[in-house]
Amino acid sequence: MLSPQLSIVIPVRNEIVLLGEMLEHYRDLASCPAQVELLFVDGESRDGSHEYLQDRGFRVLSSTPGRARQMNAGAAAAKGKMLLFLHADTVLPETAVPALLNIARSSTLWGRFDVIVEGTGVMFSIIGAMMNLRSRLSGVATGDMGMFVRRELFLQLGGFPDLPLMEDIALSKILRRQARPHCLKPPLTTSGRRWQQRGIWRTIFLMWRLRFYYFIGVSPARLAEWYR
């Protein structure tokens, strides 16, 4: 049996309500099992997320909590040439899987998607546009941009650094030494729920503050406490 070209890794923890909303999208992602494998990695959910996915025929792995640990566990079990790390609340455009399969057959090392932040009001469009611009200028991708990377390179570099926060930025900086990220279009759509729950401006200032303190050397453990 041939190995898949693409492995999609989705970390989950206590997301049963969201999983129900996203179920058909996940089925679409898993519709070409010969070329694409879909791996959920559950971080000790207490709301039945693991059982919900398993009962509906999805492959679910178990891991200790922590996005970096969960994604690394998924990558360790994956068979695809290219790994795509996807947040549970993110919807890929219809062209994404064919584009990623082509990427897997090319020499591209890693990359990300442009992003649209879902929400009502012009501020969500501005947030998405600023995220895309920041990534283009810095060569750094965040997890809600659908980071993808060649599995061989990912394993060679040791995967995501085991950090409680900023693991995506840390890996991006390591990958940036190999190549600038390849940007795929059209954009994916990610949920604006964290901005809606905490308040748009409060969330924007919080994220700027966290990135600034990370840049000057504050430990990710301390930043994770502030984020929570």
Automatic annotation (TrEMBL):
It comes from Spongiibacter thalassae. InterPro entries: Glyco_trans_2-like (IPR001173), Nucleotide-diphossugar_trans (IPR029044), Trfase_2_rSAM/seldom_assoc (IPR026461). This is Glycosyltransferase family 2 protein. Gene3D superfamilies: Spore Coat Polysaccharide Biosynthesis Protein SpsA, Chain A. The keyword Glycosyltransferase applies. The keyword Glycoprotein does not apply. Residues 7-122 form the Glycosyltransferase 2-like domain. It comes from the Bacteria. Its main location: membrane. Keywords: Cell membrane, Glycosyltransferase, Membrane, Transferase.
